[in-house]
Design brief:
Shape: elongated
Number of helices: 8
Strand content: under 5%
Number of domains: 2
Order of helices and strands: HHHHHHHH
Largest sheet: none
Radius of gyration: 27 Å
Helix content: 40-55%
Oligomer: single chain
Number of strands: 0
Length: about 210
């Protein structure tokens, strides 16, 4: 999720109207977090009885490079309609989805991920695997699942903190309040001057 949040922030800062608009940035980060979790949709098939060892099982076809490619092509087609940069959006969407499989290949006791499916179902593993393997399904809510969640939280905490840092160009609440007070003050000054200019005094009568 942290990688997806980072991709969403990068897109929001580079998109028209983004960056300083907090709501746009937050929405993009939430959406890209969902994209980063997309490959785990294969959990649904396993829960319905699909064999876990085949391409439709967990860490099967959805953890290959095909889903990131499909998502990137869809993003490239839809981005212009949403007034977003085409290739920047497509690249970040594809990387957000692909990051899931690459990180799964770095888990301890992992059986690897079939990155080259459907050409080959060979599973790839990274030589360095520091990420603990999370239990599947409802077992994630067990004590072991909570332990894994805590470890992963601290592993990705630096990236999460850097992603959630305040945008340099975004105004703080204090700055916004000061601008509002200044606007009200200028408006009051203009109204006072206009009222003073509209006041007419009677001319003295000539003797």
């Amino acid at each position: 999720m942290a990688v997806g949040m980072l991709a969403g922030r990068i897109l929001a800062q580079g998109a028209p109207g983004g960056g300083a608009a907090g709501i746009n940035r937050v929405g993009a980060m939430v959406f890209f977090s969902g994209l980063a979790l997309l490959p785990d949709v294969d959990y649904l098939g396993v829960m319905m009885g699909v064999p876990d060892s085949g391409p439709c099982g967990h860490r099967g076809a959805t953890h290959s490079l095909i889903p990131p490619l499909i998502v990137a092509l869809m993003a490239a087609a839809l981005a212009p309609r949403m007034h977003l940069p085409r290739w920047r959006t497509a690249t970040l969407c594809g990387l957000a989805v692909a990051s899931h499989a690459l990180l799964d290949a770095m888990t301890v006791t992992s059986r690897g991920v079939p990155l080259l499916w459907p050409i080959s179902f060979a599973r790839f593993e990274m030589p360095w695997r520091p990420i603990p393997n999370a239990p599947c399904g409802l077992a994630y809510l067990s004590r072991e699942g909570m332990r894994v969640a805590v470890i992963e939280f601290f592993q990705f905490l630096p990236l999460l903190v850097w992603t959630l840092r305040p945008h340099q160009g975004s105004p703080t609440r204090r700055t916004v309040r000061a601008k509002r007070r200044g606007t009200k003050s200028n408006r009051t000054t203009r109204m006072t001057r206009h009222a003073a200019a509209s006041v007419t005094f009677p001319r003295p009568r000539s003797v």
